[in-house]
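Page 37, continued from 36.
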């Protein structure tokens, strides 16, 4: 085998250029091409026009190419002249309708698919169409429509619909039926099409623990209540906090609303910033399990956090319409008076001192409490936001007006979470610890005014502690013991 370069033939294998693919002797060449190749070994009819540009061989190849193009142009039939073909005859009448029925096209333009045969003399129109003897329907109760309206729209007569609503109302209130309730309706045979079908059967889930069924008997519609057994064992979820308390509790099987209530109740006893990754959470949630397999989760019953040396255990306790959280001894949350806005290290008391930055002696009108940047600052008592914004050396500052001529101020915030005129509750987050204004580091400057004059915040009585006693305490401890006996109902988040 050989390769041809721009200069000469070069060998690429073990055979010579003369012997590869040809007879060895010139006398045995049988074709004109073979004879020309043997006589003119360097001659090519169509040379490479990309090499040896401008040589005699290149000009000969260019002339050959031009000649071939000219011959092709002369032999071409022409450009722009149409090629005539046979045109089919136009269809009309019955042929057109049959062809159109078999064609495919857009239905929006009136096309049809498939073939439709025209009616013959054997076709007779029906005087009446037969009906199904029984219709089984499914309807869904909507918002504000009412049960009677849903039944009428499903084909139930007004008399049967009114009778069904009256029977159901004797067992459950119409307001107890939740939107989205599925109704299984069975309509019977009617004598003529001019009257509505009679209601033969109506079945639906009225409550989580009750199903109702209406059936037609000899005396008319009759109601049959079907009680559903419910297991009220609570759901207990335990696990390790890890990188996120919320995500760990959700991964363990606790619903989102219960986790939010858990964190909210827990934050009244321990700062969330002090919850570590190795701490253990313990959550108990109200749960109802029907014998039919459905599960319904309710409110948070117990919130626990084990931090090793310190643990928090809170039990939900309802007193009328109020909800309180108590520890196992029946001691509740602080109420009334004022609470400290943050938990931190007291670095400066109320009184005269030399200012750490200004270097002169003046009255320090509040308390300085050191805490990490971003620590939530909570309202010391119920009140109205009198000011929220920048205030000179105080930096980001919030002032709250309270009853009894009291007012509190919170300075050096990194961020303000309330606006002027807003009403806040005791314990509500109003901002976050920072170091704005004239400050040596992240801390809260907390002031208290009584009738416009600055007073020592530590001189005002703090919140009182609520505690159960007597029969309430006995019932509380019994409930706590019962909840502590509940086994873990979901996989532990370790």
């Amino acid at each position: 085998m050989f390769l041809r370069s721009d200069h000469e033939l070069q060998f690429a294998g073990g055979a010579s250029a003369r012997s590869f693919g040809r007879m060895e002797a010139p006398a045995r060449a049988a074709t004109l091409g073979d004879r020309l190749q043997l006589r003119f070994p360097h001659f090519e009819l169509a040379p490479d026009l990309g090499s040896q540009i401008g040589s005699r061989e290149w000009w000969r190849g260019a002339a050959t190419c031009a000649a071939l193009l000219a011959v092709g142009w002369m032999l071409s039939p022409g450009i722009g002249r149409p090629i005539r073909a046979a045109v089919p005859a136009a269809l009309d009448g019955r042929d057109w309708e049959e062809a159109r029925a078999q064609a495919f096209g857009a239905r929006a333009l009136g096309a049809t698919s498939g073939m439709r045969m025209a009616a013959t003399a054997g076709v007779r129109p029906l005087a009446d169409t037969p009906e199904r003897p029984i219709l089984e329907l499914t309807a869904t109760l909507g918002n504000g429509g009412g049960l009677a309206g849903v039944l009428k729209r499903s084909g139930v007569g007004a008399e049967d619909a009114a009778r069904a609503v009256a029977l159901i109302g004797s067992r459950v209130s119409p307001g107890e039926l939740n939107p989205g309730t599925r109704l299984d309706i069975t309509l019977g045979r009617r004598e003529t099409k001019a009257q509505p079908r009679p209601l033969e059967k109506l079945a639906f889930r009225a409550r989580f623990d009750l199903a109702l069924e209406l059936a037609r008997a000899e005396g008319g519609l009759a109601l049959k209540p079907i009680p559903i057994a419910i297991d009220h064992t609570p759901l207990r979820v335990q696990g390790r906090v890890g990188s996120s308390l919320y995500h760990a509790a959700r991964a363990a099987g606790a619903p989102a609303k219960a986790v939010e209530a858990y964190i909210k109740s827990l934050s009244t006893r321990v700062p969330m910033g002090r919850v570590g990754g190795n701490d253990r959470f313990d959550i108990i949630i109200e749960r109802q399990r029907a014998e039919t397999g459905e599960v319904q989760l309710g409110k948070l019953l117990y919130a626990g956090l084990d931090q090793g040396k310190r643990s928090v255990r809170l039990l939900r306790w309802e007193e009328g319409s109020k909800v309180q959280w108590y520890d196992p001894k029946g001691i509740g949350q602080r109420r009334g008076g004022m609470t400290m806005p943050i938990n931190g290290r007291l670095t400066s008391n109320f009184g005269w001192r030399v200012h750490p930055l200004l270097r002169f002696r003046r009255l320090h009108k509040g308390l300085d409490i050191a805490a990490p940047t971003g620590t939530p600052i909570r309202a010391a008592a119920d009140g109205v936001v009198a000011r929220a914004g920048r205030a000179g050396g105080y930096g980001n500052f919030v002032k709250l007006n309270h009853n009894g001529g009291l007012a509190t101020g919170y300075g050096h915030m990194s961020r303000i979470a309330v606006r002027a005129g807003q009403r806040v509750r005791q314990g509500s987050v109003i901002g976050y610890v920072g170091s704005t204004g004239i400050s040596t580091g992240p801390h809260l400057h907390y002031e208290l005014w009584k009738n416009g004059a600055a007073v020592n915040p530590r001189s005002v009585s703090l919140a009182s502690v609520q505690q159960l006693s007597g029969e309430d305490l006995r019932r509380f401890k019994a409930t706590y013991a019962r909840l502590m006996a509940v086994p873990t109902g979901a996989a532990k988040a370790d």
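Residues 2-60 form one domain. Flag for discussion at group meeting. Residues 56-75 form the longest helix (20 residues).
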